[in-house]
Amino acid sequence: MSEPHVIARFAKNKREEVVISFDTFRGVELLDLRIYANFEDPTAAAKPTRKGISIKRGLLPELIAGLELAADAAKEGA
Q: What is the pTM of this model?
């Protein structure tokens, strides 16, 4: 696996953050949405956990469409 190219990150709570990045695994370009956390030493850099998903980069438009539907549903109170 190569070094991930971080696109965005935002806090999930006091000890965890969501990191969105592009990465390559066995020649396949991936979009990775992963929870990073640091439970042992709050002063150290957060590390990726097993919680998250990796999808082929080409599926990004479908993910965005799904998230837009979820955002619309949330606005409607669903």
A: 0.84
